[in-house]
Amino acid sequence: MAREDDQESADLARERELEWQQIVENFGERAVLDPEDVAPVEPEPVGFEREDDDEPSAGDQVPLDEEFVPPTPPPLPRPPLDRLLAWCGVFGVPALVLVCIVAGISVPSWFGLLLAAAFVGGFGYLVMKMSDEPRDPWDDGAVL
């Protein structure tokens, strides 16, 4: 709020108030244009058209025998059998339990305990096999 003794801030406040009053008074009114003032707009062509006198450049056509063919990727690495069984326990057991629940299959209690032991054992084995040494702070995990 402007002080009475500060003349510039009082003038500025009055100007702002007048501007807001004009905005509020003109709110909702639309400008009416005469039809003569509006020029018709022709749509521009969307695609690129090449003129007939242009010759194709060397980069436009690539011979088929010179196309890049990527090398075949190496096969996926296979984990050792112990880690593979641990991962199957961690991911396979919940998937099997979910399928049994959705299908409405009830399993014996000893089988449920065996599944729980497989999950906990697989998770514990993977945690046990983790490295205790800290990683290099500049190592982002990328292998080239």
Automatic annotation (TrEMBL):
The keyword Transmembrane helix appears for this protein: yes
Top-rank taxon: Bacteria
Keyword terms of this UniProt record: Membrane, Transmembrane, Transmembrane helix
Biased composition (Acidic residues): 50-68
Listed transmembrane segments: 84-104, 110-128
Chain positions covered by the region annotation Disordered: 35-75
Name of the protein described by the UniProt record: Uncharacterized protein
Protein species of origin: Nocardioides silvaticus
Lineage of producing organism: Bacteria, Bacillati, Actinomycetota, Actinomycetes, Propionibacteriales
